[in-house]
Structure formats: C-alpha cells, structure tokens
Amino acid sequence: xxxxxxxxxxxxxxxxxxxxxxxxxxxxxxxxxxxxxxxxxxxxxxxxxxxxxxxxxxxxxxxxxxxxxxxxxxxxxxxxxxxxxxxxxxxxxxxxxxxxxxxxxxxxxxxxxxxxxxxxxxxxxxxxxxxxxxxxxxxxxxxxxxxxxxxxxxxxxxxxxxxxxxxxxxxxxxxxxxxxxxxxxxxxxxxxxxxxxxx
Amino acid sequence: xxxxxxxxxxxxxxxxxxxxxxxxxxxxxxxxxxxxxxxxxxxxxxxxxxxxxxxxxxxxxxxxxxxxxxxxxxxxxxxxxxxxxxxxxxxxxxxxxxxxxxxxxxxxxxxxxxxxxxxxxxxxxxxxxxxxxxxxxxxxxxxxxxxxxxxxxxxxxxxxxxxxxxxxxxxxxxxxxxxxxxxxxxxxxxxxxxxxxxx
Lengths: 199, 199
What we know:
By secondary structure, chain A is of the alpha/beta class.
C-alpha cells in the first residue's frame, strides 16, 4: 500500500482489526458532535441507514480536509429498533428503559464505512447484524446494570457483546467483523480491487 | 453458579469468552489424540458434524471421569468442505494445497460443544459458520504463507480469521462467537434454563 490508511475513529478495536489484517493503518479520530448530527438528521426524517452513513462520511471528510492527499476511512455504528435509532444511554435508568424495550425482540446494528481519497468520497458500505434478545428477568436486568454500569454507557443499546452483554442475547445473525463495528471483508475487497493492498 | 464450569480445552479464546460473559470457568485441557480419533471416524464413514461432536464429547468425558461431580464442557471445531474434514496443515505445502482447494469456494466451520454433569452428557450443540473465500492470486497466496507460517499451522484450513486470514475471504455467515469456536449463545441459554447461571 503506497500510503497508510487514516482511520478517522478512536475505536481501538477497529484499528486492531485493520492492523491484524495487515493493512497499514493509523488512527486520527475526528471530533464531531455525533449526538447533535444524529438529532438533526432524525428531525429531517432521515432513516437509520442514512444516519450511520452520514456520520461515517462526516468523520472521514473532517480528517480528509486536513489530509487532502490521504486515504481516510470514516466509520459509524447505529442501533435500529422499529425504524428508530437508539443513542448511548446517559444514565442507568435510560439503559434499563432501552434494554426493556429490546428484551425479547430483534434489533439491528448498522455499521457504516465511507472511504475518502484526495478529499473526495470514493467508496461506501453499510453492513448489518440482526440481534435477538432473550426474555431475561427484571431481577437479572437489575443485577446486570449494577455489574456493568458505567462500562455500557459507551455503547449503543446498553450492552457490550464482548463482555456480559452476550448474556442478553438468544441469537445473532451477522459476521464477526461487522458485529465489532467494521464491515472488514467488503472494505478489504474494495482496497484490493483498487490496488491499495495486495490481492 | 454453584460450581465452576470446567473447560476441557486449552483454547484461550474460549475461556476468555466464557469469563467475559460472567461465567465462572476454569480451563483443564483434556489430552486426546484428536488426529487419530478423526481418522478412525472418517474410516468408519462418520460425517463432519459427527466428528466435531464426538471429539467434543471425548474431551468432556476424559475430564468428567476425573471430576465426576463437576460441570465439564468439551469443545471442538472442524472445517468441512464438500463433505470432507480438513486437518490442520503440517507443512506450508499442505497449507497451500488446502487454501487452493478452498479458494473461490464456500466451506463451513462446525463448532461443537458437549456438556457433562455428574460424569454424564446432559446437553450438546453444533453451531455452523459459512465462509466464502475470494479468488486470490497465487502471488498473494505465496506472500501470505511466507508472512503467516507457522502461526497458521495451529488452525484448521490454514488461516486465522483474527489475523491476516481475513484477507482470504469475501463473505462470512455466522455469529461472532461460533466463528471463534464456541457457540456461546445456545450454551448460555441452556445454562440459564437449568439455573447454572442467573437468567
């Protein structure tokens, strides 16, 4: 790869996935007010898929404007339930409300990536994971929140699948990488097709 | 959970998945000649699903005989391609042959678990992941083997998905946990139903 990929995200797991795949990547997180953008898009009637895509693009563009020669990747993951997007819970009560709404139901995680080259978007993709929560008890939920707050406040939906969040689910349909927030296989496919990495 | 779960496997990632889910687990790897058992089962005409299940059961039973009061989990993962099971490659040439056979094709990983309680099998499950390799070049394959041998000799199929193995694939259908070799969600579901963990 002639130039490193700049990851416009502070997500340690995304950088780790790219580096493990042998992609020369560096992190340069974009500072954007995600919640304000999300709320403005919702007010305009944007759907969950568009919200994830616009947030990913906004992050990529912000870094691409500072690094116009660079290959820049913006990423975002949103939780969709019944056409609505869930924000990260700010209090244990909000997390409880979200988890009660999702209990026994199926929701989706949408993982969007937008790639910039020469300060222009050249490729975009949204990967999907479908997750079904089991019908856990209120007692379990209270104990879960007591054990896992505030760690889960960093996560949409109030769970971390790689921690005790797995206990909330009965089924997950979607690949390993997209679940972790990066649709890695379509991205690697595109990078290979364009000669940015060996194929 | 009244008793810790004994994991009859030396797999660090399986222990990590259980511990992260809040399951009180300890590792006690069973020493079994997996390759001899696999070959004997193949000679008897056993299919891939049966082979994974028997290997998981053999490991669980071996530890359960020493710990008859314990809850013991045996695990195995096999790679199935066109009804055949692939063994771990012993040389770079074997890995090259396997990867050439899988190139451009879809294969399956079968992740079996068998749970023993009181030295008797009480529950079993086989989870499936479908993986499709892209049509990578011979030049890429040679460079991949040079970079990743001998690490990939520990893996069925000659790839580690959490490392550069991701570059070999175009699509993966199957959940995060089953891909890593442990069908965690059905296991947690069973443990909860039986009261071994909170639900």
